[in-house]
Structure formats: C-alpha cells, structure tokens
Amino acid sequence: MDRGESGENFDADGANVAATETAASARAEFAGYAGSKSCRACHAEQFEPWRHSHHGLAERLVDPARDDVAFEPSRTVEHGSQTSVVRKRGAGRGARDAGEYVVETLGLEGQVAPRVARRVIGEKPLRQFIVDAEGAGRGVRGAGRGDGSALAEPVAPHASSDATLAEPVAPEADSDATLAEAVAPDDELHRAIGRQQVLELCYDPAKHEWFNVYGDEDRKPGEWGHWTGRGMNWNSQCASCHNTRVKKNYDAASDTYATTMAEATVSCEACHGPMKDHVDWQQANRGAQNSPRPEPRAPSPGPDPTLRKFTSTEWLAICGSCHARRGELTGDFVPGESFFDHYSLVVPDLSEIFFADGQVREEDYEFTSFLSSRMYASGVTCLHCHDPHQARPLAEGNDLCMRCHNGSFPKSPRIDPAAHTFHKADSTGSQCVNCHMPQTVYMQRHWRHDHGFTTPDPFLTKRHGIPNACNRCHADKDADWSLAAVEKWYGERMNRPSRRRARIIAAARSGDAEQAREPLLTMLGDADNAFWQASAATLLRQGELLERDDVQRALVDATGHGFPLVREKAAGAIEPLVDVRHPAATAALAKLLDDPVLSVRVAAAWALRATVDENSAAGKDALAYLRHNHDQPGGAMQRGMWQLARSDVDGAVGWFERAVRWDPNSAPIRDALAVGYSQQQRPADAVRQMQQAVRIAPRDGEYWYKLGLAWAELSEVEHTIASLEKAVAVDANHSRAWYNLGLALDQSGKAAEGVAALVKAEKLDPRRADIPFALATIYAKHGRSRDARGAAERALAIDPRHRDARALLESLGQRQR
Question: What are the extents of the domains in the chain?
Fold first, then answer.
C-alpha cells in the first residue's frame, strides 16, 4: 500500500485499473480528432509556418536539440533569497536518469532537491519547464515518480488514422522531419498525466540566461503562488491553453489528476475543431492525402459535407478561449461554440486589474481589451490583423493599420500617419502601435501590446494616475508637458467619450459612489458598446449605490439585455438584493435560470444558490462549474459558500478548511471560514481566523470590522472596541464599523464617545433607520428625551414600519405627559 498526496491509502492495483479506465475514456473522448500530422500533406503552406510558431511550440517535450543549451554547462542562479542550480545529469554510466535536465531548487518541505524537467511551455521570449509535483505517489491519478512510471496507459490513436492523438512539435526550425519523427517517444504525452507543476525559474533563449518569472517577489514554499503551490499547477492553470482539448480530470476525494488531451500544443484542431471526419472524407473522395506526395486527386464529388465555416463571432470565441482573462465554466470548449457558454469574462470593475480607461494593468491578455475597443465595435476581428498559422501580424509597422485606415472602409477613418502623429516619418512616435497599443512587460520578459486601441490622454494621468503613451516614451517629461502638446495638436477632440467614461470609472473606484451614480446609469444605458454596459453593471453593485431605487430598476432592466455579457454582469450585480427579498430582482434572476447562454444561467443560479433546484438545468450547470473549479482554493471557497447558503454548515466548513490549507494567505478565505465557524457556534475559532485575515490584509477595514464582530460574539468588549477603532482608522467611511463601535462604547460605559461614533455613522449612511434608533435609545437611557425623540422620528422617517422606534417614541410621549 502507498500513500497518495492527500494522505489517503489506496491500492496500487486499483491504480492500474483506474489508469486503464482513464485511457479507454480518453480514446472515446478524442475519437473525432485526427492529429496535426494528418493535415500536413494537403495544407503544407499552413502547416510549415505553424509548426515553428508560438502556437506550434506552445508546449512540447524537453528536446536536446533545443534545450541542451539551457542546461549545459551547469550554472548557479541567484533569485531572491534562494540559490538554485540548473544542470544536465551526467551520461555514460548507464544510469536510468543519465542525460536528464534538472533544476535543483527549493521545494515544499524547504529542501533543495533536483526536479526533472519533463516538458516545456513556450519558446520565445521565455521557456518554462514542467516537473512532477513533489511527494506524488504511484497511485490512482498520481503525478508519478520522477521517472513518470505512475502515468496511465497510453491513449491509442484512432485506428483509421496514422496520426497520433498528441503529436509533439518539431525541434529545429530548419528541420523537415514530421512531428512524429521530431521528438522521442510520444508515450508520456499520450498518457493520463498526474499532478505537475511549472517552475518559477525560466530560461531566456535570446539572452541565454535563467531568471525568476516573478522577479523580486521571492515567493516561499507554502504560498499559493510558489512553484509548488496550486497557483503554478500545470493541470489547472496552464494545460488547457497550451494544448488541444484538455480534460483536467480532477478527483476531489483523492485530490489527484488524470489529465488527458487530444494533442499536445496548440494544434490545428485546437482552432479548427475535431477533423477526423474531414480527413476520412478527403481520403475516401479525393485520393490519399496522408503521404508526402499525394496521388492526383480524383474528380471532385462536390463540397466536403464535414466542414462548417465559422462566423466572425465564432472565430473571436476561438481566439478568446485562450487569449482572455476569464473564469472557466465547463472546461469543455470546442471551436464553433459560444464563448459565453464556456467562460465568464473579466471586465473593468472596482479592482485594479485594468486601469479606469480600460488599459491593461495586471496580466490581462488581449481579448477583454479588444472587446472594449472601437475596433471590435466596428466589426474588426483578430483575423483582420493576425495570421494564426504564423501567430504574427499580417503586415509590419504602420502597413498593418493602413490596410483599413486608407479610406477604403467606411467605418475606418482615413489617416495620414505623419499629419496625425506630429512625429517624423519612421520615428518611434510615428508608429501607430506605440501610441494606441502601448506595451507592458509581463513575466519579466514578455512585452505585450494592449489591444484596447486607447487614445493617449495625459489629462487622465494628471487626474487619476492612468498612464499615457506620450510619457511612456518621453519619460523625462511630465504629464503637463504632454497635455499641452496634445491639446495644441488635437484641441477639443481630446474631450472624447473615452475620457468621460474613464472619469466615471475612476470616480466609482474612489469611493465617491454618489458622484458616480448618475454617470454610471447613463453608461449602463449607452448602447454604443455593450462591453462597457457590462462594466457599468458591475460597478453599480456597490452597496451604497445598490440601495438606490433607480439603480435597482436599471440593473433589473439590464438582465434583459441582448448581449449575454451584460445579462451575466447584471445578474451578479443584483445578487445582494436576493438577501433583502427584493421581488423584482428575484423574479429577474429566476427568469435568467432559463437563459439560452450558460454563463448567464450560472450567474443566476449562483445568485439564487440558497433556493435554486439543483436538478434543474441551471442548477446542474452551476454545480458542474463548481466541481470544475474546486481544485483551486477560490473554487473550494465557492463550494463552501454554496453549501452554507443551503444550510449545510458542516459541509461548508469542510470546503473552507480545504481552501485555507491550499492558500493560507488569502484573507477572503479566512473570512469565509470565520463565518462558518461562527455558524457552528465556534466563536473562538472565528476570532482566530479573522486575526489571520487582518494579519494578511491590515489595510482593509472590512476585516478589522469583522474581527470586532467576532470578539463581540465572545462578549470581549474591549477587544471589540479596539478592533472597531482600527477599522475606522483604516477606513474612516466605514459606516457599519462606526455604528457598532458606538454600541460597544456605550456598552462599556462610554456613552458620550458612543454617541459621537453613532453621529458619524449617521452622517455617512443617512438611509439606515437602525443608526438613529440606536442614538434614540442611548439618549433615552441618559434622560435626553428631546434628543431621543428627534432621533426616533428620523428613524421612522426612513422606515415608517420601524416598530421599535415607534414604541420608543410613544413611551417618550407618555413620560412627557
């Protein structure tokens, strides 16, 4: 008997049975795939550039022809507080591991040990290396030992095709070897793959140097983002976009993977879909096409009935399936299907993922920015600019832009680069992309163009700290200098709708929700670009805004929008209204449970998670989404939230505890676990979790506030006051922290200080009746009848049905008589 990663016992013989079952399942799953090698004979013009492109080299086996230079001779790499060694194990002594490429680096247990590089992600500008997870056993769905012996049985190719299911890519740019010939045995790629991790040390082939992909962050073992953590897990975080038709195959009970795929790397069928029927039809009707010199074709019997022409929207979905920052809903996208049936797209919201004008900030890829652009709104698609087989632009420099901006397209204004840019021809400043597609460096080496096609605006830099392309280049000048130049050149044209929109979003993020309310409502109703309507819906979810009747009505109306992204984000925005039994919001969400788009159904089911029928279509969709993602701490937390809403407190706590184990440095997860412990009547444990939350996020007033509430459950008044005082010190606008601080101060005998805190709370949140009512009770207790009556009347003005306020007012009247 061996022990797997989860510590559970299992039978090694059972592992072999499971491996065989996985292999059989994979054969059926990928039976419609022919493999890229089958495309080569007929489509050599596309095949040859593809196999040497970023797509063709998205993931491959380690190959001496390419990778020996990275490991030989050995070298020592200093990164952060760590020292690692990269080397090639010695050959010539008959050892089984001779010639392997290894990275000696710090592991989960704090020990430096050799990690064998199994496969490679990417080519230029950097290569990342995939290794087996630490401590993986030989059992069911395990990651395998260093020699890979735990991998399941190979998945055989379809009998009618000589193409394998997972062909590796060619090792040399000038090689004419077929894919199958290019790389040594394909058995590892064809097997079900257990837990594997991606090292943080990467190789830069241009500079011939190793570096840490996270720069100076110095991540440590035990952290989610360390190479041993789930943030660097290949099965969950990398595999699906670097390979073709990946099935993650995660088993929660054993916390193991048996990941399979139709083919390694971004193959022909990753974009064109399964093509075995096409290959079979071509071979049957147009002669053998799978040899280097196919025989002359027979007379055409007509068009190939197996082929379907994708629409522009479908092509966008194909590109977006990998080139988007999004949440996976199904893990089962096939080319030709709707993007929104498989993914939930991230849009600009209150977070700092994007700048307020839509420019990329964090690692956002391209698709979200592109959907936000005027280019997309005008009908431009990825294929207008990019050759997917070469994974490069169709033209160089301004020639690419001038393909459309030459006056021949009605939606593309004619542009003279010299007159438009006010820079010398062929200078850096005369290049369209340098102004409208500025680059940001990710992963320390990867320069990526922003695909939002934004307009440089130094005004937004001055007011809101949003970067502009002018000062990215003229780094020795300030924003005033750039602003004077663009206003001189372009005048009133700088006061563009995009500037006004960026200011609205910046205001919403600043905490001045009331200032942003009406502009956001206007933005939500602006039909020029549905993407920004979706962003407005998300921004309107803020608590203070969501209490307004006009905001509630607008968001409920948005659930009927024609674009699914708007419906999805509107459903998420009105989720808090379910807790207050808002009838219109609840009815709108119930209607969305039958929406034709899966992302919308899942959003609605999540909002109604306390009551939705788990056997309904939407309920099943939501559960499938939760199961697909519960191998990550955020997904485990969501499983717990679902269970908690359905009154399964013990089940919820189990998921929360699992999430904390996987990511102990997440304050939201600690907060969720504290809620679970509180409902289990474990207040001391809840306090401990909130203490960890404030340790992790000491500048977040919400966690200090909740720590104060947790102390209150233990009747620890002084600790309650100290935590709430910290909450208002960190966030002076936290009205609920001021409210509870006022109650606690009064309880401790500090009535005057309590009243002052409650007065502050009422000024911050004049729409809540409980605040003036609390003031009324304190005033009444201390004999200040006039003040008490005034506060009670304010409470009744807000909520005429407030029985306690009315009773207090009546008792005060009787006392006066």
Answer: 2-70+116-285
